[in-house]
Specification:
- InterPro entries: FAD-bd_FR_type (IPR017927), FNR_nucleotide-bd (IPR039261), Riboflavin_synthase-like_b-brl (IPR017938), SIP_FAD-bd (IPR013113), SIP_fam (IPR039374), SIP_rossman_dom (IPR007037).
- GO terms for molecular function: oxidoreductase activity.
- This is NADPH-dependent ferric siderophore reductase.
- The chain has 6 helices and 11 strands.
- It is of the alpha/beta class.
- The protein folds into 2 domains: about 5-105, Elongation Factor Tu (Ef-tu), domain 3 (Beta Barrel); about 125-230, Nucleotide-binding domain of ferredoxin-NADP reductase (FNR) module (Rossmann fold), CATH 3.40.50.
- It has a 6-stranded antiparallel sheet with strand order 3-4-5-2-1-6. It has a 5-stranded parallel sheet with strand order 9-8-7-10-11, with helices on one face.
């Protein structure tokens, strides 16, 4: 066993289910996944390639591990991740296509800072479909009384995100300004809340710039996580 595998948890694919034409939910279960310290919005990193291959070593293991937000977690020992498929499929997308019940999976413990801020006067979610799993997990835990705003760009069907009616869904192809343009028009309260911005790097940049420069939000009130950027390897 190599050093990397000593640091990873072991599980088995239990079931797979399409959530949209391009997004597939994969449930991973096993004794090692019991009682993990997970906060909604955090992600795990899956081993999607051979850590002993020459390509993996030369890339600094960039093509071996891929990060996926946890869609749902069961402390009894199971978690769901959602894998987005696309034409220029990298190692992560190919793994998602081939995942099947009974397949062994290695993954890290949950980590990440894209989590809800307690005591926020309201919550703003902005991003694209790659952020939907993290947003879904966070929205699922918010009490009904908490105020929610949001804008999410999708290429096809919207994922089954909780409280989706409180978010504005836009077509990636038909909305040139994307989520940033929608957020600019949202009737947000005068005081800043907390924004959770995730997905394509350009979307994250534009929404952050609007909130800080145009609305005067403090930078600390905006939590940003870029998941991918066109043409950039290692982020699919």
């Amino acid at each position: 066993m190599n050093v990397l595998e000593r640091l990873l948890l072991s599980g088995t694919v239990e079931e797979c289910e399409p959530l949209t034409p391009r997004m597939r939910r994969v449930r991973i279960a096993g004794p090692a996944l019991r009682g993990l310290d997970w906060v909604p919005g955090q992600h795990v990193r899956l081993k999607v390639g051979d850590v002993l291959s020459t390509r993996a070593v030369l890339s600094g293991f960039r093509d071996v591990l891929r990060s996926y937000s946890v869609w749902r977690y069961d402390p009894a020992g199971a978690l769901d991740v959602c894998v987005l498929d696309h034409e220029a499929a990298g190692p992560g997308a190919r793994w998602g296509r081939q995942a099947a019940a009974g397949q062994r999976v290695m993954l890290t413990r949950p980590e990440g800072r894209l989590v809800l801020r307690d005591g926020s006067p309201y919550h703003l979610f902005a991003g694209d479909e790659t952020a939907a799993p993290a947003f879904g997990a966070m929205l699922r835990t918010l009490p009904e009384g908490e105020r929610v705003f949001g804008a999410v760009a999708v290429a096809d069907e919207r994922p089954p995100v909780p409280r989706s009616g409180e978010l504005t869904w836009v077509s990636r192809d038909e909305t040139p300004d994307g989520p940033a343009g929608v957020v600019r028009e949202l009737p947000l309260p005068a005081e800043p809340g907390t924004a959770y911005v995730a997905g394509e790097a350009a979307i994250c940049r534009d929404v952050l710039r609007h909130l800080v420069r145009e609305r005067g939000w403090p930078r600390a009130a905006v939590r940003v996580k870029a998941f991918w950027s066109p043409g950039k390897k290692g982020m699919d």
